Amino acid sequence: MNLDDLLVLVIEPSNMQRHIITGHLRAIGLEEIEEFDEAAPALERMGQIVPDIVVSSMHLPDMTGTDLVRRMRQSPDLMDVTFLLISSETHYRYLEPIRQAGAIAILPKPFTQEALSTALRNTMHYIRDTQEVEPLDNDELEDMRVLVVDDSLLSRKFVRKSMNAIGIEHVIEAKDGAEALQIMKQESFDLVISDYNMPNIDGLELVEHIRHYSDQPSVPVMMITSEQNEGRLAAVESAGVSAICNKPLNYDMLKQLVRQLVTGIDV
């Protein structure tokens, strides 16, 4: 799959900003681009044809980018569409739902063409792998057993689909650390991928329990989180987490880390 095969919807109320964004996209190699200044007509268009990528601003005349991605995720046809946010917004209450909804990237304004190129390459690789017809060359991964732990159903779905895209089919889900520990009493895993902030037993407590009290103390544990508190992240590292990834999840980085953690080979 090439960039010029992808249909992109750009939703940005500012004519100047929309021109800048579409200019960058065309410079990268994207040709099929449709522009909108509001979310409602873009959603109507998505009802006619499912895009490959939606690039949106946060503050739109008729709704926020948060409202838009929620509406998309409620539709069976749009729940897996790749979403990229471009915004100067930094407030947690706006950005966290977008992170949890499986956005491929959140780019600040102003952004560089390099940053956009990186996000689009990451997006293309994710779409290519999820739509790949031929079997992927991932023989060392096909027998892997992965436990995904997150209280967000959308986040679990996105991680599961990412695992499937890189050739891992056996993925078990848990909605929090307590459920994960119960599952781990019954099954063994090659990798645990967990969120940090969860009810009942959070990511830190889960890592500590795995390392000190479980029958699988050496299993690699990857933390995927939007947590920004350095003290809390340092505590997770001290507890023995194998890797920490930020939300939105970088698909290419996830793919590399999974191979590295499981095979021990730096790829």
From TrEMBL:
<feature type="domain" description="Response regulatory">
    <location>
        <begin position="7"/>
        <end position="124"/>
    </location>
</feature>
<dbReference type="InterPro" id="IPR001789">
    <property type="entry name" value="Sig_transdc_resp-reg_receiver"/>
</dbReference>
<feature type="modified residue" description="4-aspartylphosphate">
    <location>
        <position position="195"/>
    </location>
</feature>
<dbReference type="InterPro" id="IPR050595">
    <property type="entry name" value="Bact_response_regulator"/>
</dbReference>
<protein>
    <submittedName>
        <fullName>Two-component system, chemotaxis family, response regulator CheY</fullName>
    </submittedName>
</protein>
<keyword id="KW-0597">Phosphoprotein</keyword>
<dbReference type="Pfam" id="PF00072">
    <property type="entry name" value="Response_reg"/>
</dbReference>
<feature type="domain" description="Response regulatory">
    <location>
        <begin position="145"/>
        <end position="262"/>
    </location>
</feature>
<dbReference type="InterPro" id="IPR011006">
    <property type="entry name" value="CheY-like_superfamily"/>
</dbReference>
<dbReference type="GO" id="GO:0000160">
    <property type="term" value="P:phosphorelay signal transduction system"/>
</dbReference>
